[in-house]
Every structure is written in structure tokens, then in C-alpha cells.
Design goal:
Number of helices of chain B: 8
Largest interface: A-B, 30 and 45 residues
Number of strands of chain A: 0
Order of helices and strands of chain A: HH
Oligomer: heterodimer
Number of strands of chain B: 0
Radius of gyration of chain B: 18 Å
Structural class of chain A: mainly alpha
Distance between the termini of chain A: 85 Å
Shape of chain B: globular
Helix content of chain B: over 70%
Structural class of chain B: mainly alpha
Radius of gyration of chain A: 29 Å
Strand content of chain B: under 5%
Shape of chain A: rod-shaped
Largest sheet of chain B: none
Chain lengths: 72, 173
């Protein structure tokens, strides 16, 4: 190992090696990701509903233009 | 529209076990990058959150350790670009781990540690991965999704910054 490499390693190691991190980080990640996932699912459902309604409205408009009286 | 994969309880458990096992090394990596305990934990948390959301795909590709570190480095890079510089609080050297070293060595380590934060985020990440985690150039290139030449260039740039710091130190004395 070169001197620079060894120096940088020792410098980082002396300050970093004792760090471990709180196990609560993982719990927080799982909890917040579950929230994100629920929110995304809700947005997707709303988007799908909106797309379906729009498609239906367009379909009805086209049918009307063609003289098909679908709803009457 | 890309749909995220739904996660079954088994995959969630696998993620939790994987994350708990890697937490220490990820926080150490984060601390080496940010030199701040809060900054390190925040970086790890946001990287793990992204990893968790894509977990089935990432686990399927085989190397989540690389992925999560890459996310951390990119996040650090983004923060710098948005000028949200990580909070830098340089802790005192833990003398219990260095009591055998002589004063000059301790001072040199301290100087390098303080100087590392001035190295550009990507080069800093390369220095940490290469010299602290002792990964090969090839592995670092894989991890950061870049070429081996880029790893070499970043290593050289990082060392140059550290050397410049030393020159400035000696000039200012």
C-alpha cells in the first residue's frame, strides 16, 4: 500500500470506525416507504379513474358525432 | 408509466435483514463522505428508502450494496449542485484509537480528515471506496457506473486536493 493510500485510510479509519448508526433508520425507511407506496397507489387509482372517465366521454362524443345515440 | 413492483412480506423481510446487516458500513461510508453524523444518517436513510421502493428489481439484479452506495454518492453530488452543502462538523480525533501514534502522525491524519471534505463529492467517494473500503479500481467503476479511467482521474484529483491542502498549510505557517 502506498503512503498516500495508507495515510488516507488511517485518517478516515481513525474517525469513522466506531460509527454504527441507529437501527431505527431501517424502521423509519420501511415505515416511510410504506406511506410512499400507499400514496402512489392512490394517485395511480385516481389517474386510472380519470383516464377511464375521459375515454368514456370521448367515446360518447364520437358516437354522437357519428349519429349514434348511445344514451338516449 | 413505470409501475413499481409490489413487495410481498418475504421480500420486505429480506430487505430489512439486508439493511440491518449493512447499516454500520453504510453509515461509516456516509460519515466518511459528509463528516457529519446527521448528514450520514440522512444520506443512508434516503438511499435506503429509494432502494426499498425498488427492492425486488434491485435484489434481482444481484448487488444491492453497489446500488445503495451509488445512490448515496449521487445524492451527495446533487446536494452540492443545489448548494445544499452537507453540514460539516469535524469531530475531535478519538485519542483512544490513536494513542500509540506519535504526534506528527496524529496531526497528519487530522489534517487529511479535515481536508477530505474539500475534495469534490465524486472524487471524495472514490477516495473512500478505494482507500478506506479498499475496493479495486474495477469494483469502484462498477459501483459508480463509470469507467476505470474515470476512477483513476477522480483518485488523482482527490489526492491533488489533499496535497494542495498540505501546501497551503505549510505556506500559511
Amino acid at each position: 500500500m502506498s503512503t498516500v493510500e495508507a495515510l488516507v485510510h488511517d485518517a478516515i479509519s481513525a474517525n469513522v470506525d466506531l460509527m454504527s448508526g441507529s437501527p431505527r433508520i431501517v424502521e423509519r425507511v420501511v415505515a416511510s416507504a410504506a406511506q410512499v407506496r400507499r400514496r402512489r397507489r392512490r394517485v395511480r387509482a385516481l389517474g386510472a379513474g380519470l383516464a377511464a372517465t375521459t375515454a368514456l366521454a370521448i367515446g360518447l362524443a364520437i358516437a354522437r358525432l357519428l349519429g349514434w345515440h348511445v344514451l338516449s | 408509466m413505470r409501475r413499481e413492483a409490489e413487495m410481498d412480506p418475504e421480500a420486505e423481510l429480506a430487505f430489512t435483514e439486508w439493511a440491518a446487516a449493512r447499516l454500520g458500513s453504510l453509515v461509516r461510508f456516509g460519515f466518511a463522505l459528509t463528516q457529519s453524523e446527521g448528514g450520514a444518517e440522512g444520506l443512508v436513510e434516503s438511499a435506503l428508502a429509494r432502494t426499498f421502493l425498488e427492492w425486488p428489481a434491485i435484489a434481482g439484479r444481484g448487488n444491492p450494496d453497489h446500488y445503495v452506495r451509488r445512490v448515496m454518492v449521487n445524492e451527495l453530488d446533487t446536494r452540492r449542485r443545489h448548494r445544499k452543502r452537507p453540514e460539516v462538523s469535524v469531530p475531535d480525533i478519538d485519542l483512544t484509537t490513536t494513542f500509540e501514534a506519535d504526534e506528527a502522525e496524529v496531526a497528519e491524519r487530522d489534517r487529511i480528515w479535515r481536508e477530505i471534505v474539500n475534495v469534490a463529492p465524486r472524487a471524495r467517494a472514490v477516495l473512500v471506496l478505494r482507500f478506506y473500503e479498499r475496493r479495486s479500481e474495477y469494483e469502484v467503476a462498477q459501483l459508480l457506473a463509470c469507467s476505470v479511467e474515470s476512477v483513476r482521474a477522480n483518485t488523482a484529483a482527490g489526492i491533488a486536493t489533499l496535497r494542495a491542502g498540505r501546501l497551503l498549510d505549510s505556506v500559511s505557517r
